[in-house]
């Protein structure tokens, strides 16, 4: 009985030692794994730091090279500027402590540097010569024969185009005036004020094609700036809006047979170009609008016409 009890006790002790051995082995394995993982993390962190350092050094070198290139270009530009100033007699003054921004050029000749550092009284005579040369060079520019080069005053100076009235109403401050929005084939419509209330019903103005003189100087009429003029055949007691030919569209240019179309950007009121041409703008016996007997027309589409008025002024 005692022998059996001893055997059981021995078995229990052996089993405890065996279990403890297994736990110790597992713990050591975990510790070893942690050490390997930490070693791997440390290695990766070292590699990442090395890569970052390399990238920073590479970027720093690129910026240094780019800065050196820009500095060189700036110095070359300053050198050219100073050379031009010296050549034109401009006095150069050295600025102490300045880095490439002073007016003294590093690559100028010794004579140029000496001239740059001379007192203000000495270079007066030398500086006078280039100034005289400048005056001589400007003289031909001031003697341009502008009146000779100016185009003759005729209908070719007038910018007449086809337009469409897209909106019309009565002027808020004048009973005799229409206020129109006219599409002349441009990016924006033009505002036009016309004294046609007594002669043309408003329903006949809406959405009709008209001929518009576009290069008059804009003028304010009863508080509204008018940017063009609708061309009409006019007698003492009747006014008719000129009709473009069939097939005409907004933006079509009006020409005159025998005259080159070269309109001014804007007519100068002092030169009275339109006033000079106006007496020769008339309809003929066939109702065709003409200048000195030559028909006003849209090339390839036809002539400008009045409805009934013959041999009257166009204005």
Report on the structure:
The chain is α+β, with helices and mostly antiparallel strands and 315 residues long. 40% of the residues lie in helices and 18% in strands. It contains 6 helices and 15 strands. It has helices spanning 2-87, 110-117, 124-142, 146-149, 202-205, 273-277; strands spanning 160-170, 178-183, 190-194, 209-213, 219-221, 224-226, 229-230, 232-234, 239-241, 255-256, 281-283, 289-291, 294-298, 302-303, 313-314. The strands form 4 sheets. It has a 5-stranded antiparallel beta sheet, with no helix packed on it. Strands 10, 11, 12, 13 and 14 form a 5-stranded antiparallel beta sheet that branches. β12 (289-291) and β13 form a beta hairpin. Mean pLDDT is 82; it is low at 100-110, 112-117 and 119-129.
Question: Layout of SSEs?
Answer:
Layout: H1 2-87, H2 110-117, H3 124-142, H4 146-149, E1 160-170, E2 178-183, E3 190-194, H5 202-205, E4 209-213, E5 219-221, E6 224-226, E7 229-230, E8 232-234, E9 239-241, E10 255-256, H6 273-277, E11 281-283, E12 289-291, E13 294-298, E14 302-303, E15 313-314
Major sheet: size, sense and barrel closure? 5 strands, antiparallel
Could you say which overall geometry the principal axes of the C-alpha atoms support?
Answer: elongated
Instruction: Tell me the total number of β-strands.
Output: 15
* Low-confidence residue ranges: 100-110, 112-117, 119-129
């Amino acid at each position: 009985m005692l022998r059996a009890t001893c055997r059981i006790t021995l078995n229990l002790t052996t089993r405890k030692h065996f279990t403890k051995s297994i736990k110790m082995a597992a713990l050591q394995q975990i510790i070893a794994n942690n050490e390997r993982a930490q070693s791997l993390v440390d290695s990766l962190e070292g590699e990442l730091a090395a890569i970052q350092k390399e990238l920073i050094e590479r970027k720093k070198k690129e910026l240094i090279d780019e800065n050196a290139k820009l500095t060189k270009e700036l110095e070359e530009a300053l050198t050219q500027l100073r050379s031009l100033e010296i050549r034109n007699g401009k006095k150069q003054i050295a600025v102490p402590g300045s880095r490439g921004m002073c007016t003294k050029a590093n690559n100028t000749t010794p004579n140029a540097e000496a001239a740059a550092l001379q007192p203000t009284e000495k270079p007066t005579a030398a500086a006078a010569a280039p100034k005289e040369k400048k005056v001589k060079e400007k003289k031909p520019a001031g003697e341009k024969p502008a009146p000779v080069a100016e185009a003759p005053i005729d209908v070719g100076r007038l910018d007449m185009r086809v337009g469409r009235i897209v909106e019309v109403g009565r002027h808020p401050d004048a009973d005799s005036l229409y206020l129109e929005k006219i599409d002349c084939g441009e990016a924006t419509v033009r505002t036009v004020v016309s004294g046609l209330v007594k002669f043309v019903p408003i329903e006949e103005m809406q959405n009709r094609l008209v001929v518009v003189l576009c290069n008059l100087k804009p003028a304010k009429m009863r508080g509204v700036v008018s940017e063009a003029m609708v061309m009409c055949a006019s007698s003492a007691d009747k006014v008719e809006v000129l009709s473009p030919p069939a097939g005409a569209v907004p933006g079509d240019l009006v020409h005159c047979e025998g005259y080159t179309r070269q309109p001014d950007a804007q007519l100068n009121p002092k030169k009275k170009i339109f006033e000079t041409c106006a007496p020769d703008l008339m309809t003929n016996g066939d109702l065709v609008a003409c200048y000195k007997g030559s028909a006003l027309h849209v090339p390839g589409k036809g002539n400008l016409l009045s409805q009934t008025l013959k041999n009257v002024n166009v204005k």
